[in-house]
Amino acid sequence: MKIERFEDIITWQKAKELSLLCYVLFKNNKDFKYRDQILSAVVSIMNNIAEGFERKGNVELKRFLFIAKGSSGEVRSMLYLALELKYISEQDFNKCYNLALDVSKMLSGFIKTL
Hints:
With 114 residues, the chain is mainly alpha-helical. It has a single domain (8-113), classed as Up-down Bundle (de novo design (two linked rop proteins)), CATH 1.20.1440.60. It contains four helices and no strands. It has helices spanning 10-26, 32-54, 58-84, 90-113.
């Protein structure tokens, strides 16, 4: 099956789910620097998948997928801070962290296929 639109990419769909979850969890957080950083990183995952796909070449796509993978690591790192600073519960941490880890693994698989 040939993917016609970035919206059809399962990894992008999961990254969007992660973005929405983070927006819900951190929308009322008053640590603006923290909030802006994690939201920027999480949105970067889905946007880099989309941008790489739209460039219509595997070399470019692969480069953007690596950037998205890096942003996924940044999100996971920041989630540890959120937990330690009591910005989120352990349950929310686990939900977000596992989703971010799944996205990272999916990105690795996607990169290997290119």
